Amino acid sequence: MPRNTSSSNCSSVDVTFQSTLYAATFTIIFIPGLLANSAALWVLCRFVNKKNKAIIFMINLAVADLAHVLSLPLRIFYYIKHTWPFGNFVCLLCFYLKYLNLYASIVFLTCISVQRCLFLMNPFKAKYWKRRYDAAVCIVVWMVVGAACLPFPIMRSSGLGKNETTCFADLGLVKPSVPTAVAMLTIAELSGFVVPLVVIVYCTWKTRQFLQNEEHLVEHSNEKQKAMRMVLTCAAVFFICFTPYHINFIFYMLVNLNIIKNCTVLNISISFHPFSLCLASINCCLDPVLYYFMASEFRNKISRNGSTVMHRRLMSRESASSVKE
Protein backbone atom coordinates (compact mmCIF):
# COMPACT_ATOMS: atom_id res chain seq x y z
CA MET A 1 0.00 0.00 0.00
CA PRO A 2 1.16 3.52 -0.56
CA ARG A 3 3.32 5.07 2.10
CA ASN A 4 2.46 8.58 1.04
CA THR A 5 -0.63 10.39 -0.14
CA SER A 6 -1.86 10.76 -3.66
CA SER A 7 -1.90 14.53 -3.53
CA SER A 8 1.18 16.75 -3.34
CA ASN A 9 -0.80 19.21 -1.20
CA CYS A 10 -1.08 16.72 1.68
CA SER A 11 1.61 15.64 4.09
CA SER A 12 2.99 12.13 3.82
CA VAL A 13 1.02 9.34 5.50
CA ASP A 14 3.22 6.94 7.43
CA VAL A 15 1.87 3.38 7.29
CA THR A 16 5.08 1.59 8.20
CA PHE A 17 3.20 0.18 11.20
CA GLN A 18 1.20 -2.11 8.90
CA SER A 19 3.88 -4.83 8.75
CA THR A 20 3.84 -5.20 12.53
CA LEU A 21 0.05 -5.01 12.59
CA TYR A 22 -0.39 -7.68 9.92
CA ALA A 23 2.21 -10.02 11.44
CA ALA A 24 0.66 -9.74 14.91
CA THR A 25 -2.93 -10.13 13.70
CA PHE A 26 -2.23 -13.12 11.46
CA THR A 27 -0.19 -14.81 14.19
CA ILE A 28 -3.02 -14.38 16.69
CA ILE A 29 -5.75 -15.76 14.40
CA PHE A 30 -3.73 -18.56 12.75
CA ILE A 31 -3.87 -21.26 15.44
CA PRO A 32 -7.51 -20.64 16.53
CA GLY A 33 -8.61 -20.35 12.90
CA LEU A 34 -6.80 -23.52 11.88
CA LEU A 35 -8.06 -25.61 14.81
CA ALA A 36 -11.62 -24.28 14.77
CA ASN A 37 -12.18 -24.64 11.03
CA SER A 38 -10.47 -28.04 10.81
CA ALA A 39 -12.60 -29.33 13.67
CA ALA A 40 -15.67 -27.74 12.09
CA LEU A 41 -15.08 -29.51 8.79
CA TRP A 42 -14.67 -32.84 10.58
CA VAL A 43 -17.84 -32.36 12.63
CA LEU A 44 -19.95 -30.93 9.82
CA CYS A 45 -18.96 -33.68 7.38
CA ARG A 46 -20.04 -36.27 9.94
CA PHE A 47 -23.52 -34.76 9.92
CA VAL A 48 -23.72 -34.10 6.18
CA ASN A 49 -26.48 -36.71 5.83
CA LYS A 50 -28.60 -35.20 8.58
CA LYS A 51 -31.74 -33.33 7.65
CA ASN A 52 -30.43 -29.83 8.05
CA LYS A 53 -30.21 -27.66 5.00
CA ALA A 54 -27.68 -25.03 6.07
CA ILE A 55 -24.93 -27.59 6.65
CA ILE A 56 -23.80 -27.56 2.99
CA PHE A 57 -23.30 -23.79 3.12
CA MET A 58 -21.42 -24.10 6.41
CA ILE A 59 -19.06 -26.72 5.01
CA ASN A 60 -18.22 -24.42 2.11
CA LEU A 61 -17.81 -21.48 4.51
CA ALA A 62 -15.35 -23.53 6.56
CA VAL A 63 -13.44 -24.48 3.39
CA ALA A 64 -13.18 -20.80 2.40
CA ASP A 65 -11.90 -19.88 5.86
CA LEU A 66 -9.44 -22.76 5.97
CA ALA A 67 -7.99 -21.86 2.56
CA HIS A 68 -7.20 -18.37 3.82
CA VAL A 69 -5.89 -19.60 7.18
CA LEU A 70 -3.44 -21.98 5.49
CA SER A 71 -1.89 -19.04 3.62
CA LEU A 72 -1.30 -17.03 6.81
CA PRO A 73 2.13 -18.54 7.70
CA LEU A 74 3.52 -17.20 4.41
CA ARG A 75 2.06 -13.78 5.15
CA ILE A 76 3.51 -13.84 8.66
CA PHE A 77 6.93 -14.81 7.26
CA TYR A 78 6.88 -11.92 4.79
CA TYR A 79 5.84 -9.24 7.26
CA ILE A 80 8.52 -10.37 9.72
CA LYS A 81 11.39 -10.95 7.26
CA HIS A 82 10.33 -8.33 4.67
CA THR A 83 11.38 -10.58 1.82
CA TRP A 84 9.52 -13.05 -0.42
CA PRO A 85 11.47 -16.12 -1.65
CA PHE A 86 8.46 -18.17 -2.77
CA GLY A 87 7.93 -16.78 -6.28
CA ASN A 88 5.35 -14.61 -7.99
CA PHE A 89 2.71 -17.29 -8.45
CA VAL A 90 2.53 -18.16 -4.74
CA CYS A 91 2.42 -14.47 -3.88
CA LEU A 92 -0.54 -13.79 -6.14
CA LEU A 93 -2.23 -17.04 -5.04
CA CYS A 94 -2.08 -15.99 -1.37
CA PHE A 95 -3.30 -12.54 -2.33
CA TYR A 96 -6.16 -14.11 -4.30
CA LEU A 97 -7.15 -16.47 -1.46
CA LYS A 98 -7.62 -13.49 0.86
CA TYR A 99 -10.28 -11.92 -1.33
CA LEU A 100 -11.78 -15.26 -2.29
CA ASN A 101 -12.30 -15.95 1.41
CA LEU A 102 -13.72 -12.48 2.00
CA TYR A 103 -16.39 -12.58 -0.70
CA ALA A 104 -17.15 -16.30 -0.48
CA SER A 105 -17.74 -15.82 3.25
CA ILE A 106 -20.06 -12.90 2.56
CA VAL A 107 -22.12 -14.90 0.08
CA PHE A 108 -22.32 -18.05 2.22
CA LEU A 109 -23.30 -16.03 5.30
CA THR A 110 -26.04 -14.47 3.19
CA CYS A 111 -27.19 -17.91 2.00
CA ILE A 112 -27.35 -19.21 5.57
CA SER A 113 -29.39 -16.19 6.70
CA VAL A 114 -31.83 -16.46 3.79
CA GLN A 115 -32.32 -20.20 4.17
CA ARG A 116 -32.78 -20.08 7.93
CA CYS A 117 -35.29 -17.24 7.62
CA LEU A 118 -37.30 -18.85 4.80
CA PHE A 119 -37.40 -22.31 6.33
CA LEU A 120 -38.32 -20.96 9.72
CA MET A 121 -41.36 -19.18 8.32
CA ASN A 122 -42.15 -21.86 5.71
CA PRO A 123 -41.36 -25.28 7.24
CA PHE A 124 -43.10 -27.07 4.37
CA LYS A 125 -40.53 -25.66 1.93
CA ALA A 126 -37.77 -27.00 4.15
CA LYS A 127 -39.36 -30.44 4.10
CA TYR A 128 -39.28 -30.70 0.32
CA TRP A 129 -35.99 -28.85 -0.28
CA LYS A 130 -33.30 -31.18 -1.62
CA ARG A 131 -29.70 -31.11 -0.45
CA ARG A 132 -28.50 -31.16 -4.03
CA TYR A 133 -30.06 -27.73 -4.51
CA ASP A 134 -27.66 -26.34 -1.89
CA ALA A 135 -24.76 -28.12 -3.57
CA ALA A 136 -25.71 -26.54 -6.91
CA VAL A 137 -25.91 -23.09 -5.29
CA CYS A 138 -22.43 -23.58 -3.78
CA ILE A 139 -20.93 -24.54 -7.15
CA VAL A 140 -22.39 -21.40 -8.71
CA VAL A 141 -21.10 -19.28 -5.81
CA TRP A 142 -17.54 -20.59 -6.16
CA MET A 143 -17.56 -20.02 -9.93
CA VAL A 144 -18.95 -16.49 -9.75
CA VAL A 145 -16.93 -15.36 -6.73
CA GLY A 146 -13.77 -17.02 -8.07
CA ALA A 147 -14.07 -15.13 -11.35
CA ALA A 148 -15.05 -11.86 -9.65
CA CYS A 149 -11.97 -11.92 -7.38
CA LEU A 150 -9.47 -12.29 -10.23
CA PRO A 151 -9.08 -8.50 -10.73
CA PHE A 152 -7.65 -8.12 -7.20
CA PRO A 153 -4.35 -10.00 -7.83
CA ILE A 154 -4.23 -8.70 -11.42
CA MET A 155 -4.39 -5.09 -10.23
CA ARG A 156 -1.59 -5.73 -7.72
CA SER A 157 0.83 -7.49 -10.09
CA SER A 158 2.51 -4.40 -11.51
CA GLY A 159 5.64 -4.65 -9.36
CA LEU A 160 6.28 -8.37 -9.62
CA GLY A 161 8.45 -8.27 -12.72
CA LYS A 162 10.75 -5.60 -11.26
CA ASN A 163 11.22 -6.97 -7.75
CA GLU A 164 10.43 -10.60 -6.99
CA THR A 165 11.23 -10.19 -3.29
CA THR A 166 8.15 -8.06 -2.54
CA CYS A 167 4.59 -9.22 -2.02
CA PHE A 168 1.21 -8.29 -0.49
CA ALA A 169 1.07 -4.74 0.89
CA ASP A 170 4.31 -3.73 -0.89
CA LEU A 171 3.08 -4.59 -4.38
CA GLY A 172 2.40 -1.82 -6.83
CA LEU A 173 -1.14 -0.94 -7.78
CA VAL A 174 -2.20 -1.01 -11.42
CA LYS A 175 -4.35 2.07 -11.95
CA PRO A 176 -7.00 1.64 -14.67
CA SER A 177 -8.75 4.60 -16.21
CA VAL A 178 -11.03 6.52 -13.87
CA PRO A 179 -14.30 5.43 -15.58
CA THR A 180 -13.20 1.77 -15.52
CA ALA A 181 -12.10 1.96 -11.91
CA VAL A 182 -15.32 3.67 -10.79
CA ALA A 183 -17.41 1.09 -12.65
CA MET A 184 -15.48 -1.79 -11.05
CA LEU A 185 -15.73 -0.20 -7.62
CA THR A 186 -19.47 0.34 -7.97
CA ILE A 187 -20.13 -3.22 -9.09
CA ALA A 188 -17.91 -4.67 -6.35
CA GLU A 189 -19.50 -2.60 -3.59
CA LEU A 190 -23.08 -3.21 -4.72
CA SER A 191 -22.81 -6.94 -5.38
CA GLY A 192 -20.23 -7.78 -2.70
CA PHE A 193 -21.46 -5.59 0.14
CA VAL A 194 -24.63 -3.52 -0.26
CA VAL A 195 -26.92 -6.28 -1.56
CA PRO A 196 -25.73 -8.89 0.99
CA LEU A 197 -26.02 -6.26 3.74
CA VAL A 198 -29.64 -5.48 2.83
CA VAL A 199 -30.51 -9.17 2.57
CA ILE A 200 -28.94 -10.10 5.93
CA VAL A 201 -30.55 -7.14 7.72
CA TYR A 202 -33.93 -8.02 6.21
CA CYS A 203 -33.63 -11.72 7.14
CA THR A 204 -32.57 -10.83 10.68
CA TRP A 205 -35.49 -8.44 11.06
CA LYS A 206 -38.03 -10.92 9.64
CA THR A 207 -36.72 -13.76 11.82
CA ARG A 208 -36.88 -11.61 14.95
CA GLN A 209 -40.36 -10.42 14.02
CA PHE A 210 -41.51 -14.00 13.48
CA LEU A 211 -40.13 -15.23 16.81
CA GLN A 212 -41.67 -12.37 18.74
CA ASN A 213 -45.08 -13.61 17.70
CA GLU A 214 -46.22 -15.71 20.66
CA GLU A 215 -48.37 -17.86 18.41
CA HIS A 216 -45.26 -19.29 16.75
CA LEU A 217 -43.33 -19.88 19.98
CA VAL A 218 -45.64 -22.54 21.35
CA GLU A 219 -44.07 -25.42 19.43
CA HIS A 220 -40.36 -26.12 18.86
CA SER A 221 -39.40 -22.86 20.59
CA ASN A 222 -35.87 -24.10 21.33
CA GLU A 223 -35.09 -24.80 17.68
CA LYS A 224 -36.52 -21.47 16.63
CA GLN A 225 -34.43 -19.62 19.18
CA LYS A 226 -31.35 -21.38 17.81
CA ALA A 227 -32.34 -20.24 14.34
CA MET A 228 -32.57 -16.69 15.67
CA ARG A 229 -29.13 -16.90 17.27
CA MET A 230 -27.67 -18.25 14.05
CA VAL A 231 -29.12 -15.43 11.96
CA LEU A 232 -27.95 -12.86 14.51
CA THR A 233 -24.47 -14.38 14.45
CA CYS A 234 -24.39 -14.09 10.65
CA ALA A 235 -25.33 -10.43 10.95
CA ALA A 236 -22.76 -9.81 13.71
CA VAL A 237 -19.90 -11.42 11.74
CA PHE A 238 -20.89 -9.42 8.68
CA PHE A 239 -20.97 -6.07 10.50
CA ILE A 240 -17.81 -6.64 12.55
CA CYS A 241 -15.59 -8.06 9.81
CA PHE A 242 -16.82 -6.77 6.46
CA THR A 243 -18.60 -3.44 6.97
CA PRO A 244 -15.54 -1.37 8.06
CA TYR A 245 -13.48 -2.68 5.14
CA HIS A 246 -16.07 -1.97 2.45
CA ILE A 247 -16.95 1.49 3.73
CA ASN A 248 -13.30 2.50 3.91
CA PHE A 249 -12.46 0.79 0.61
CA ILE A 250 -14.63 3.29 -1.29
CA PHE A 251 -12.62 6.25 -0.02
CA TYR A 252 -9.33 4.35 -0.27
CA MET A 253 -9.80 3.67 -3.98
CA LEU A 254 -11.05 7.19 -4.73
CA VAL A 255 -7.97 8.56 -2.98
CA ASN A 256 -5.65 6.34 -5.03
CA LEU A 257 -7.41 7.48 -8.20
CA ASN A 258 -6.88 11.14 -7.17
CA ILE A 259 -10.62 11.72 -7.23
CA ILE A 260 -10.67 12.61 -3.52
CA LYS A 261 -7.95 15.11 -2.60
CA ASN A 262 -9.17 16.22 0.80
CA CYS A 263 -6.23 15.66 3.17
CA THR A 264 -8.34 14.59 6.14
CA VAL A 265 -10.23 11.95 4.18
CA LEU A 266 -7.01 10.88 2.49
CA ASN A 267 -5.12 10.43 5.77
CA ILE A 268 -7.95 8.55 7.47
CA SER A 269 -8.65 6.18 4.58
CA ILE A 270 -5.00 5.23 4.04
CA SER A 271 -4.25 4.88 7.76
CA PHE A 272 -7.40 2.82 8.48
CA HIS A 273 -7.00 0.49 5.50
CA PRO A 274 -4.63 -1.98 7.26
CA PHE A 275 -6.95 -2.16 10.28
CA SER A 276 -9.97 -2.86 8.08
CA LEU A 277 -8.09 -5.70 6.36
CA CYS A 278 -7.24 -7.21 9.75
CA LEU A 279 -10.88 -7.01 10.82
CA ALA A 280 -11.87 -8.79 7.62
CA SER A 281 -9.44 -11.62 8.43
CA ILE A 282 -10.92 -12.16 11.90
CA ASN A 283 -13.99 -13.75 10.29
CA CYS A 284 -11.98 -17.00 10.15
CA CYS A 285 -12.23 -17.16 13.94
CA LEU A 286 -15.81 -15.86 14.26
CA ASP A 287 -17.50 -18.10 11.68
CA PRO A 288 -17.04 -21.25 13.86
CA VAL A 289 -19.60 -19.76 16.27
CA LEU A 290 -22.19 -20.68 13.63
CA TYR A 291 -20.88 -24.23 13.58
CA TYR A 292 -21.32 -24.41 17.35
CA PHE A 293 -25.04 -23.72 16.99
CA MET A 294 -25.24 -26.34 14.28
CA ALA A 295 -23.30 -28.91 16.31
CA SER A 296 -25.45 -28.30 19.38
CA GLU A 297 -28.54 -28.82 17.26
CA PHE A 298 -27.19 -32.15 16.01
CA ARG A 299 -26.04 -33.09 19.49
CA ASN A 300 -29.56 -32.62 20.83
CA LYS A 301 -31.00 -34.69 18.02
CA ILE A 302 -28.46 -37.45 18.55
CA SER A 303 -29.04 -37.49 22.30
CA ARG A 304 -32.78 -37.76 21.73
CA ASN A 305 -32.33 -40.50 19.16
CA GLY A 306 -29.80 -42.25 21.37
CA SER A 307 -32.17 -42.18 24.32
CA THR A 308 -34.92 -43.64 22.18
CA VAL A 309 -32.67 -46.42 20.90
CA MET A 310 -31.43 -47.22 24.39
CA HIS A 311 -34.99 -47.34 25.70
CA ARG A 312 -35.99 -49.74 22.94
CA ARG A 313 -33.03 -52.00 23.66
CA LEU A 314 -33.86 -52.13 27.37
CA MET A 315 -37.48 -52.91 26.59
CA SER A 316 -36.47 -55.71 24.23
CA ARG A 317 -34.12 -57.20 26.83
CA GLU A 318 -36.82 -57.10 29.48
CA SER A 319 -39.25 -58.79 27.09
CA ALA A 320 -36.69 -61.49 26.26
CA SER A 321 -35.96 -62.18 29.92
CA SER A 322 -39.66 -62.43 30.75
CA VAL A 323 -40.13 -64.98 27.98
CA LYS A 324 -37.28 -67.14 29.36
CA GLU A 325 -38.78 -67.07 32.83
Can you give a write-up of this model?
The protein is mainly alpha-helical and 325 residues long. The protein has a single domain (18-310), classed as Rhodopsin 7-helix transmembrane proteins (Rhopdopsin 7-helix transmembrane proteins). It has 11 helices and no strands. It has helices at residues 18-46, 55-81, 88-121, 123-128, 131-148, 151-155, 178-212, 221-256, 263-281, 283-286, 288-324. The longest helix has 37 residues, at 288-324. The N and C termini lie far apart (84 Å). The model is unreliable at 1-6, 301-315 and 320-325 (pLDDT under 50). InterPro entries: GPCR_Rhodpsn (IPR000276), GPCR_Rhodpsn_7TM (IPR017452). It is found in: Cell membrane. Putative receptor for purines coupled to G-proteins.
Distinct helical segment count: 11
| CATH C-level | Mainly Alpha
Query: What is the count of distinct domains?
Result: 1
CATH topology-level fold name: Rhopdopsin 7-helix transmembrane proteins
Shape: globular
User: Mind telling me the CATH superfamily name?
Assistant: Rhodopsin 7-helix transmembrane proteins
Return the structural class.
mainly alpha
Low-confidence stretches: 1-6, 301-315, 320-325
**Share in helix:** over 70%
Mean pLDDT equals 80
* Beta-strand percentage range: under 5%
Alpha-carbon distance between the termini? 84 Å
